[in-house]
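sry for the spam today, last one i promise. struct tokens for design, 254 residues
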């Protein structure tokens, strides 16, 4: 493939992230279906035929004598990698013709209140991250799980005809190309170089409730900080930062 990626394609697999766990840097795997797709905290993700189910391996530590690899990057900044992946996917969706979408921290891409795409970043070995990306394109997730009706949306319903959504191979190429560009900038210039663009993806401050493993906090989500942490403004005017592992679930309050 272009942009330095190699791609493995499978008809079906339990999880593309688990396949990618055995791959090297700048390798990716795409499956027509996943039988055990998952999101954060082991939540299930319906991965039926017609969607884009893709996992890509990104180096996150120094690898000597390879200029194309990420080097000399503080490990703290790589905690924000899911946000960088989200930015890359949004860039690809915009290239595909989508004009109205937003991110719900830390890993969902929505159109209005419906989920279009989800992200899951795993680290199975030091120095490598697996970025799992699921995008509803031509598939019908509500047929597999009726509870998803009115909660999900497909790219095929959002891009007018013509031009129609790109086919899955073309969309895969778009996502991988933007992923290489965004993570390359993150490696060279730091996560903070991406922050101005990332903090436009939220579609303004939003009233939210955070589930902190049982404890609940309400306030206004105002964006993210220099390591990708959520910034919550309380009603009393105090801003508190929360890392992704602290927040089990974020609920938007309308």
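last one done:
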């Amino acid at each position: 493939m272009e942009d330095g990626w190699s791609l493995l394609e499978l008809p079906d697999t339990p999880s593309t992230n688990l396949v990618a766990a055995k791959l090297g840097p700048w390798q990716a795997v795409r499956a027509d279906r996943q039988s055990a797709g998952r999101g954060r905290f082991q939540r299930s993700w319906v991965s039926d035929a017609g969607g884009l189910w893709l996992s890509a391996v990104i180096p996150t530590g120094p690898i000597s004598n390879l200029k194309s690899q990420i080097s000399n990057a503080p490990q703290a900044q790589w905690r924000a990698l899911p946000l960088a992946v989200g930015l890359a996917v949004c860039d690809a969706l915009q290239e595909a013709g989508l004009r109205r979408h937003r991110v719900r921290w830390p890993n969902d891409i929505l159109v209005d209140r419906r989920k279009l795409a989800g992200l899951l970043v795993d680290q199975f070995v030091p120095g490598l991250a697996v970025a799992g990306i699921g995008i509803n394109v031509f598939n019908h997730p509500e047929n597999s799980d009726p509870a998803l009706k009115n909660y999900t949306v497909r790219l095929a319903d959002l891009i007018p005809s013509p031009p129609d959504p790109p086919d899955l191979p073309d969309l895969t190429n778009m996502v991988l190309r933007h992923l290489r560009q965004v993570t390359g900038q993150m490696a060279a210039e730091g996560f903070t170089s991406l922050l101005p663009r990332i903090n436009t993806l939220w579609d303004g401050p939003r009233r939210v409730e955070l589930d902190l493993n049982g404890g609940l906090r309400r306030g206004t989500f105002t964006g993210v900080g220099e390591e990708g942490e959520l910034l919550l403004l309380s009603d009393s005017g105090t801003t508190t930062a929360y890392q992704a592992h602290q927040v089990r679930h974020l609920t938007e309050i309308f």
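Helices lie at 16-20, 81-96, 141-144, 168-189, 195-198. ok im logging off now
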